[in-house]
Amino acid sequence: MTEWAVVTGAAQGIGAVIAEFAVKAGYRVAAWDIDGPAVERTAAEIGDGCVPSAVDVADEESVRAAAALLPEPPRLVVNNAGIVRFGPLLDLPLAEWESALRVNLTGTFIVARTLAGPMGKAGGGAIVNLASVNGLAAAPHAGAYSASKAGIVRLTEHMAMEWARLGIRVNCVAPGLIHAGMSDAIYADAEVRRVREGAVPLARLGSAEDIAAAVLFLGSEKAGYVTGQTLAVDGGLIKS
Ligand code: NAD
Asked: Could you give the domains of the chain?
């Protein structure tokens, strides 16, 4: 029997590769993204097994409506949708602060909470939340983004404790410097790329595939005794 996976923010970047990896791993994937036309294009490229929906993870009604369309509860949920809002805290408009918290942290909460009940009744499964190394250590002008991602790390631990008895494992992946998605434009500059690579112990930027492999591992039975953890996938950056 084919099991379902929900991947949010699946229209592009890391989420699109996670959706592709999940289909290759045998899941039928509900690809959710606020950009409906883009996620339809991505799902068509991935092919059979990837079903797109326009969903705003920050809107509980939107998430509930998409969840109701699933033929059965998912076995895997990947909370990948995210936005960056950079700027010095003294000047950061309150709306920027609130949108980072709303999409990244509250969106993760809404999607996970909406699906965890039905998952538990159907025998459990796994949730993997996307944080960032910025959620593990401060970075210049990343206050709003960092706070939202640090919140995801702690929220992951609480979900893991509360939902273990439902048979649901909840873990977190914290990507480092990734040459994909929201960071693609930054690394188009060869000099910036050289400097950033030099900061990474493994001496290269990460890829969307590096992140997707870690997500699929934590979502699989190979990680069946792992819950409440945050795995930094960062080439050693956070330990350097
Ligand atoms: P991206 O900007 O390329 O893709 C994010 C996707 O999320 C987009 O398709 C966007 O439409 C979707 N999205 C945004 N708001 C949404 C909402 N309200 N509801 C539903 N979908 C929404 O980003 P990415 O680089 O692929 O990042 C994916 C995840 O990885 C994010 O959580 C990000 O914070 C995290 N991350 C990325 C990097 C990096 O360098 N790329 C590093 C650390 C962490």
From this structure: 4-234 (3.40.50.720)
